[in-house]
Amino acid sequence: MEIRHLRYFIAVAEELNFTRAAERLKMAQPPLSQQIKELENELGTNLFRRTKRKVELTESGRVFLTEARHTLQQLQKGVEMTRLAARGKVGRLRVGFIGSAMDRYLIEIIQAYTSAFPEVTLSLKEMTSSQQLEAHQANRIDIGFMRTFICNENYESKIYSEEPLVAVLPEKHPLAEKGSISIKEIGNDPFIFFPRKYGSYFYDLLTNFFNRHGMSLNVVQEAIHMHTIVNLVATEIGVSVVPESVQNFQRPGIKYLYIKEETPDITLCYTWCKNNTSSVLKAFIKLISESSINN
To answer: Which family does the record claim for this protein (predicted)?
Structure first.
């Protein structure tokens, strides 16, 4: 049995006239009658009751008509969904991200993507940079937003944004009312810092910056997430530095201050495995690279 047999049958069942059905199908009537007869032989039952005056569906024919219509509808839906999947319009996208990416940039990306691809199921997972690399290796995410730039035989990264550092101080700190400070002014303060094992690139970038200015940090507390660092600063146990976009996270008890010295560019990169051939992923990367929100 082929799909054309279903179309032939449905045409005859709806017209209840072989001549009209043949005209509708743009074919001759005798071959159509022969195809219906072969279909009935294959099914082992009569689908039509034929007389000289009329054609009627049998009970078996009525049941088969319902199923034949359903089958063609499902087939058409499958064809449409397959074409959409090939263009990245349906499917699933798993995105890893560092928490601070949500302070500005990732919100805009997700808004643009869900508007352009509403049928894609989007799964967002907050992770550190090192956790994202592990998730890539285990095929748990398709793309990740991290501070680490990676480009080798397995991964590809592109820079989405670059931003300077700002200092974050308790609001009762003696320097908190200043508009900007030198990094050396807080060189002797207790520091709240990011642990190296969760993002060596970001950690080394910051420590090298401090070392160039003759600073050896007194780290009294470590925290994985930028918002946790800011919240710990509010407890007055120390000071810290964070990417500029973290200023969008406002809470009582802290002040953000610009740093007078030129700070290293803190990058936000999007990274994916080169062997990931997902059409959904390709469409997401294309949207990021072409979007006007790209920085």
So the answer is: Belongs to the LysR transcriptional regulatory family.
